[in-house]
């Protein structure tokens, strides 16, 4: 492969092109459905067409008559495969949380449209589809809970009658502060009370899910290939659910075509394929179709947010009170209940607020389970506080940037202990805001907007702000324990130097588009003084990388990358001891730079790393007691989260006649700490911005009153294209995080966290003088037009 | 998703296609570009027993101008319409509308005859030929007949085309009058929520997705003809219509859009 | 089953398929050309875009039998035999126009066809020309810049 690469001496900080690209650009990369598995059994899943129904009868006879369809199995038939095992939820957020039993294939009752009720085993992809379409299921419909509010209504039908309630849990933060919060509201000059709906979203990575379980019957081993973000966690969970010894199970994530949180899970089809492959001694595979994905893969968001701000006469915040109703869907998937908590700490945003109280009530509905979707809890929190801050600015009569500036945590106050007890690591929110205001030419835009208003133009300009801080780099294991999360937050890395001085990095992070191979190579190349192309990065296979906690929550660089950085240091320490032995010098007198050990003050006394590596390999003459070879392993448990922050400014043009919103400018200034590769940072921010803007303007998982998802394909669920996307203009601010030695924070979710409120604030800004104070997401043309019409007294 | 199985027949000529249709009755469907039919088959919303592939009938792929008429073969692809210098000169509205259908890959496969036969009220080109006063030539076992576009569409995905007929040609009058097409949608690739086609300086006006068929906005045309302003004419765009309600628009909003877009289209077509 | 003859990436291929076999599945499952991906079932995403007789087509919205006798070019067929990337692939690499890479083969094929079909493309033209190819990672800006670069009409 001939690829042009730039090769500056110091790699970290450079816009180095990705080593992942050639395989992906040529079709060489293998995604899950690309695997060639001769003799595999194809699984077709029969899914409930009812939101809530008793399964009266399942008739597979027509399916079995189809050539290539071999078996039709119901939940009853399959039950012995998992026995007492059920799909896991790893986050029991309260001790009295209600957890329904979640079988991979339902028995007795279907709880949502998409719930698996039977499976077809066939010889081919096409026969599996034919078979699944031909199974006839007789349902007796039951009353369904569709909307969040319906779940807590008097006399609501129960999603899980055995739990005797639709309430999953109630979780609060700083409840003993209630009296102080009440007092702050009682004495406030300004009180803002807002309610927002976080619509459900379909994550829709371009690659749907898929998995294949391949047994080695003689040896008893099982390999699960899955389009997953979490091979390591999936391995542990599959082992627990099915009782397969971890020593007999290997999980491999091949090239994975995006995840955005929805591949951070343990799914029915993974358990099903493993159980069947083990039982049949043959490979068993399943690939999701797009319409199937809409009802078989988790959805994101799904909250009703109630937020109140109390402020003094100048708009300085005195208290924030938040109540959420969060939609769990019909079942709890891997981290479903924990998603609102990840936002719970952040509803006070970037602002110093003396009093804070947060409560979340989680409920079951007869809909697809929710779970982590890019940002997971933090976009929701940022949305609520940033929309409410604009309302406060309007109430006080100051500009949005002024209300933010008055309330920001000050640069000199870092590290800053937040009201709920987090320690924000570093930042300069004022500097970031100023940079964004200037880049967006806010004054010029406002003049343009005023001009259009004065001229009576139907093309209104709006400028919207969003300042955010997020917590990522999940996470200190002890903090996760305090939140009742079922695992730790560390990450593992191994750095090995081969006899010829090539470097092998093994990481427990699991990339699916983020560019780990490139960035890890850059970090290690700088450390060891080697070429990044001489570094290979191994990942995503539990046989190669046995220890890891995978990729989610913008954790890869700040936790996994730090582990790699530390492992490189550790291997240098060992090399230094060998070099000192070779040079007959004291270790403390050696300096290491550019891949060479030198004795300080004696320039001619030097040995290159290659020489040390070969000596470590031959082991002919190592210091007494030293093990051969250069290799070091580090498991890093971060002492704190990291706190990326930024200010984004969206400029929209709203056509008041049609309600159409066009994003005409988008400025983002982000502080993700030290940047390893700005090219990759920018790519993450671009994509993140569009995903958040898509929530603001386009995307909505719409259910009808019967609980049918009516946006189940990409013709109806509006993932935006290049035409709808704005041109992004980015700058950054770097305040290194003191949490880790590289000073990095994370950037995978920042764009998505920031952009939805920026866009919505811009829409409202364009229309506020027409009497519009809120527009619900997504701000479709019809929604905007109706908001204008109703503000104008119903005239159209 | 995977379509249900079917028998596949390649038509060697229009006559052959018609005889295959006659032979297989309502089990059979014509397959041209397939860009309306195949997605429906993938969702198993359509499962014809026999597909008669007319996609190879290259003799039905042409754009010919003679006197005041442009004759377009039914198998002419949207991208052919888009790139035809002759059509751009004789009937610029039609080539411009063709360039707005779907995306380039769709335009490379989709055919004019196919999209008209599909009779989707949300499609662009049926409304365009309607506004232009086109004539549709259909051939059946008994020979060819000419159908005015205004009489062609009868209901949701329904037309006067018999089960054993196929469209062979679309005849469009050359039109150097003012024209415009307003396509309003949320994403560029989507069907129009509402569309308005204006031809012939405002005397040919049609509406997309405002009912069960593409339709002429006769009240608007009459108003323009009688000298009304664009705003006055546009005000009656939705008169007497019962537009559908769907995910993107309810009936009221569609009516409102029809009025706004009609005014804009008339203005752009030179009606002040 | 029907016999179909295709020229795929310059090689003559003959295969037996059910008439309903989508072109993308013939390429992937019968010919082992798995670079062309499937991303939806509604012709919306363009992940399956290939060239049919030199012009972009969505291989999930074509039956293989419709392509009988056609020349098909897939992502596997655009780099040179020695591995030198096609200028469009190279531009995607240089502009960081891919992240997970799943939409990339279809996006590259659509872009190759687009540049060929519309000489002198500007940014507006590129964005509209790619409206039928969805990407969830990049936010499109780098893709647009890559296509402009390869088209020789912008993007540095």
Shape of chain B: globular
Percentage beta strand of chain B: 15-25%
Question: What's the overall geometry of chain A?
Answer: globular
Helical residue percent of chain A? 25-40%
- Largest sheet: number of strands, sense, barrel closure of chain B: 5 strands, antiparallel
Low-confidence stretches of chain B: none
> Main sheet of chain A, how many strands, which sense, barrel?
7 strands, mixed
So how many helices of chain B? 12
Number of strands of chain A: 28
> Using only CA atoms, what is the Rg of chain B?
18 Å
Q: Whole-Å distance between the termini of chain B?
A: 49 Å
Q: Please state roughly what percent of the residues of chain A sit in beta strands, choosing from under 5%, 5-15%, 15-25%, 25-35%, 35-45% or over 45%.
A: 15-25%
- Number of helical segments of chain A? 21
If you average the pLDDT of chain A, what whole number results? 96
Main interface by residue count: A-C, 62 and 63 residues
Oligomer category: heterotrimer
What ranges of chain A have pLDDT less than 50 throughout 5 or more consecutive residues?
1-8
Average pLDDT number of chain B: 97
Question: What are the secondary-structure elements of chain B, in order, as H or E?
Answer: EHEHEEEHHHHHHEEHEEEEEEEHHH
Helix content of chain B: 25-40%
Write structural notes for this entry.
- By secondary structure, chain A is an alpha+beta fold.
- In chain A, 30% of the residues lie in helices and 24% in strands.
- In chain A, the strands form 7 sheets. Chain A has a 7-stranded mixed β-sheet with strand order 3-5-1-12-9-10-11, sandwiched between helices. A 5-stranded mixed β-sheet of chain A has the order 7-15-14-13-8. A 4-stranded mixed β-sheet of chain A has the order 18-26-27-28, sandwiched between helices.
- The longest helix of chain A is centred in the last third of the chain and has 28 residues, at 556-583.
- The N and C termini of chain A lie far apart (61 Å).
- Chain B starts with 6 loop residues before the first strand and ends with a helix.
- Chain B is globular, with a radius of gyration of 18 Å.
- Chain B has helices spanning 14-24, 37-42, 78-83, 85-90, 92-98, 104-109, 112-118, 124-131, 149-152, 218-225, 230-234, 251-268; strands spanning 7-10, 28-31, 50-53, 63-66, 69-73, 135-140, 143-148, 153-155, 158-159, 166-173, 180-184, 194-199, 204-208, 215-216.
- In chain B, β6 and β7 (143-148) form a beta hairpin.
- In chain B, strands 4-5-10-6-7 form a 5-stranded antiparallel β-sheet, sandwiched between helices.
- Chain C has 156 residues and is an alpha+beta fold.
- Chain C contains 5 helices and 5 strands, in the order ββαβββαααα.
- A 5-stranded mixed β-sheet of chain C has the order 2-1-5-3-4, sandwiched between helices.
- In chain C, a hairpin with a 2-residue loop joins β3 and β4.
- Chains A and C meet through α1 and α19 of A and α1, α2, α3, α4 and α5 of C.
């Amino acid at each position: 492969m001939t690829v042009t690469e730039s090769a500056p001496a110091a790699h970290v900080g450079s816009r180095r092109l990705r080593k992942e690209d050639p395989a992906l650009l040529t079709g060489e990369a293998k995604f899950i459905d690309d695997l060639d598995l001769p003799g595999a059994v194809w699984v077709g899943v029969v899914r409930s067409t009812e939101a809530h129904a008793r399964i009266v009868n399942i008739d597979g006879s027509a399916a079995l008559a189809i050539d290539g369809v071999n078996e039709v199995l119901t939940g009853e038939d399959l039950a012995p495969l998992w026995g007492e095992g059920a799909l896991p939820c790893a986050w029991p957020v309260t001790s009295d949380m209600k957890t329904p039993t979640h079988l991979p294939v339902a028995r007795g009752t279907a709880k949502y449209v998409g719930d698996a009720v039977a499976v077809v085993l066939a010889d081919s992809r096409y026969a599996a589809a034919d078979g699944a379409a031909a199974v006839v299921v007789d349902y007796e419909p039951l009353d369904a809970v569709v909307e969040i509010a319906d779940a807590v209504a008097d006399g609501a039908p129960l999603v899980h009658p055995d739990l005797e309630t639709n309430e999953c849990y109630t979780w609060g933060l700083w409840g003993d502060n209630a009296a102080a919060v009440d007092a702050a509201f009682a004495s406030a000059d300004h009180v803002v009370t807002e309610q927002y709906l976080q619509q459900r979203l379909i994550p829709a990575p371009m690659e749907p899910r898929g998995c294949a379980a391949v047994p080695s019957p003689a040896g008893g081993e099982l390999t699960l290939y899955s389009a997953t973000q979490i091979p390591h966690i999936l391995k542990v969970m599959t082992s627990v659910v099915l009782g397969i010894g971890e020593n007999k199970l290997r999980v491999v994530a091949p090239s994975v075509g995006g995840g955005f949180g929805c591949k951070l899970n343990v799914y029915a089809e993974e358990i099903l394929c493993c159980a069947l492959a083990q039982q049949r001694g043959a490979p068993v595979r399943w690939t999701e179709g797009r319409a199937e994905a809409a009802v078989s893969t988790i959805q994101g968001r799904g909250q009703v947010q109630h937020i109140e701000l109390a402020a003094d006469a100048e708009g300085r915040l005195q208290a924030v009170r938040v109540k959420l109703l969060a939609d769990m869907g019909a079942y709890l998937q891997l981290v479903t209940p924990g998603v609102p908590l990840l936002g719970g700490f952040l509803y006070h945003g970037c602002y110093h607020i003396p009093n804070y109280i947060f409560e979340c009530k989680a409920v079951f509905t007869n809909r697809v389970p929710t779970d982590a979707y890019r940002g997971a809890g933090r976009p929701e929190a940022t949305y609520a506080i940033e929309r409410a801050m604009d309302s406060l600015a309007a109430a006080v009569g100051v500009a949005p940037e002024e209300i933010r500036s008055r309330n920001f945590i000050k640069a000199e106050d870092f590290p800053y202990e937040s009201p709920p007890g987090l320690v924000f690591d570093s930042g300069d929110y004022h500097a970031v805001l100023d940079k964004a205001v200037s880049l967006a030419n806010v004054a010029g835009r406002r003049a343009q907007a005023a001009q259009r208003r004065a001229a009576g133009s139907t093309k209104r300009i709006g400028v919207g702000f969003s300042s955010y801080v997020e917590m990522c780099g999940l996470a200190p294991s002890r903090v996760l324990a305090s939140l009742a999360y079922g695992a730790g937050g560390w990450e593992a890395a191994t750095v090995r130097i081969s006899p010829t001085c090539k470097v092998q990095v093994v990481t427990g992070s699991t990339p699916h588009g983020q560019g780990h191979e490139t960035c890890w190579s850059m970090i290690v190349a700088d450390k060891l003084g080697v070429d990044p192309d001489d570094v290979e990065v191994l990942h995503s296979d539990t046989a190669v990388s046995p220890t890891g906690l995978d990729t989610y929550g913008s954790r890869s660089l700040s936790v996994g990358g730090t582990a790699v950085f530390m492992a490189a240091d550790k291997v240098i320490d060992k090399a230094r001891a060998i070099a000192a032995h070779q040079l007959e010098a004291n270790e403390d007198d050696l300096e290491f730079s550019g891949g060479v050990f030198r004795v300080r003050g004696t320039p001619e006394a030097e040995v290159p790393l290659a020489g040390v590596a070969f000596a470590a390999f031959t082991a002919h003459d190592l210091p007494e007691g030293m093990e051969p070879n250069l290799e070091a392993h580090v498991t890093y448990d971060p002492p704190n989260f990291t706190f990326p922050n930024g200010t984004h400014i969206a400029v929209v043009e709203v056509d008041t006649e049609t309600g159409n919103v066009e994003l005409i400018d988008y400025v983002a200034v982000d502080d993700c700490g030290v940047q390893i590769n700005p090219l990759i940072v920018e790519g993450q921010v671009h994509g993140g911005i569009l995903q958040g803007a898509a929530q603001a303007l386009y995307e909505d998982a719409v259910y009808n009153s019967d609980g049918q998802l009516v946006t189940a394909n990409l013709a109806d669920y509006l993932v935006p294209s290049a035409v709808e996307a704005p041109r992004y203009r980015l700058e950054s601010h770097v305040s290194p995080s003191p949490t880790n030695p590289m000073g990095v924070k994370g950037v995978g979710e920042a764009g998505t966290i920031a952009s939805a409120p920026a866009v919505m604030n811009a829409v409202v800004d364009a229309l506020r003088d027409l009497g519009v104070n809120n527009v619900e997401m997504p701000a479709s043309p019809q929604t905007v037009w109706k908001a204008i019409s109703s503000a104008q007294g119903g005239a159209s | 998703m995977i379509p249900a199985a079917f028998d596949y027949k390649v038509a060697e000529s229009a006559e052959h296609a018609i005889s295959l249709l006659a032979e297989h009755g309502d089990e059979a469907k014509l397959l041209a570009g397939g860009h309306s039919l195949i997605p429906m088959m993938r969702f198993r919303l359509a499962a014809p027993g026999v597909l008669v592939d007319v996609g190879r009938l290259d003799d039905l792929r042409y754009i010919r101008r003679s006197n005041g008429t442009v004759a377009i073969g039914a198998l002419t692809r949207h991208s052919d319409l888009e790139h035809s210098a002759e059509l751009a000169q004789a009937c610029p509205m039609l080539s411009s509308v063709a360039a707005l259908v779907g995306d380039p890959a769709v335009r490379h496969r989709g055919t004019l005859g196919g999209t008209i036969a599909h009779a989707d009220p949300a499609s662009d080109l049926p409304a365009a030929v309607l506004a232009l006063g086109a004539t549709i030539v259909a051939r059946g076992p008994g020979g060819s007949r000419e159908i005015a576009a205004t009489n062609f569409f009868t209901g949701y995905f329904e037309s006067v085309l018999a089960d054993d007929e196929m469209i062979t040609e679309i005849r469009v009058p050359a039109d150097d009058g003012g024209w415009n097409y307003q396509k309003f949608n949320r994403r560029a690739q989507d069907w129009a929520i509402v569309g308005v086609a204006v031809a012939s300086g405002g005397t040919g006006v049609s509406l997309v997705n405002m009912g069960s068929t593409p339709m002429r906005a006769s009240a608007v045309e009459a108003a323009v003809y009688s000298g009304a302003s664009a705003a006055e004419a546009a005000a009656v765009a939705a008169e007497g219509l019962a537009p559908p309600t769907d995910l993107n628009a309810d009936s009221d909003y569609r009516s409102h859009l029809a009025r706004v877009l009609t005014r804009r289209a008339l203005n752009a077509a030179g009606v002040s | 089953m029907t016999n179909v003859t295709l020229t795929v990436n310059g090689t003559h291929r003959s295969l037996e398929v059910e008439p309903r076999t989508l072109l993308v599945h013939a390429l992937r499952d019968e010919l082992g050309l798995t670079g062309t991906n499937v991303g939806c079932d509604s012709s919306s995403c363009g992940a399956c875009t290939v060239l049919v007789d030199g012009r972009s087509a969505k291989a999930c919205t074509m039956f293989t039998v419709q392509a009988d006798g056609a020349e098909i070019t897939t992502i596997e067929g655009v780099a040179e035999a020695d591995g030198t990337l096609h200028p469009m692939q190279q531009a995607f690499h240089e502009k960081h126009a891919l992240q997970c890479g799943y939409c990339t083969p279809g996006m590259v094929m659509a872009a190759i066809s687009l540049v060929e079909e519309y000489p002198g493309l500007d940014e507006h033209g590129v964005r509209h020309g790619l409206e039928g190819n969805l990407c969830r990672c990049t936010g499109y800006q780098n893709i647009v810049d890559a296509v402009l670069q390869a088209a020789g009409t912008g993007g540095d």
